[in-house]
TrEMBL record:
Protein name, UniProt field: Metallo-beta-lactamase domain-containing protein
Lineage of source species: Bacteria, Bacillati, Actinomycetota, Actinomycetes, Kitasatosporales
Pfam families associated with the record: Lactamase_B
All copies of domain Metallo-beta-lactamase, residue ranges: 26-223
CDD domains: metallo-hydrolase-like_MBL-fold
Amino acid sequence: MTVTWEELGWERLADGVGRCRLPGWDCTAGLVLGADAALMVDAGSSLDEGARLREGARRLAGRRVTHLALTHPHFDHVFGAAAFTGAEVYGAYGAAGTGALFAPGGQGRQALRADAVAEGLDSRAAREAAEAVSPVRHEVRGEQPLDLGGGRRVLLADAGPGHTGHDLAVLVPGSPDVLFCGDLVEESGEPQAGPDAVPSHWPAALDRLLELGGDDALYVPGHGAVVDAAFVRVQRDALAARFGVSR
């Protein structure tokens, strides 16, 4: 039975492209459909959330998610990753070694679990997700095209560092172009700079996003409503002022 994006509580952004704003942390998960494959952008904050995203994607695509792009290694974006069994997992260059996050028993997993609990995630759910986090099999250095079939090609771009040391953006050409920005861009609150942020490079990372998307793209932030290029420029200038980065 065919369902629409709206019937599942998703926001349609372009033909075959949509996103879901998840409860709790207002985190975005994106979906890009091709004739032969389906790409999920970020995986939610728990295995249960990842499973709900997986099922929604299956109903929309008529197939399982074949590719998963993780925009950065924070719990609210990666803890659902293990729900996407068999998917090819992509991250920015160096993400696989970030604090041993994607290595079994790695210290990064425990730090992320502690952060999730501190932010309000149930401790059991946090532990299960941390233990199960899927490894990044494909690290993107520079840019990497991905063919999803039927003329649908996306571009994965190592856009950071900025919000973290390893920020991945996903450009979906179309009418309009759609750019998934991860937490390099945030709309529902001030951009968060934790201990793994690289503030001196963050404004340049937003310049990179603007180069990728141009003036007419839809920019999808990691948290909040879809924005335009003008919003990204204002946020870039505000971050430069906030962190004392000369332009």
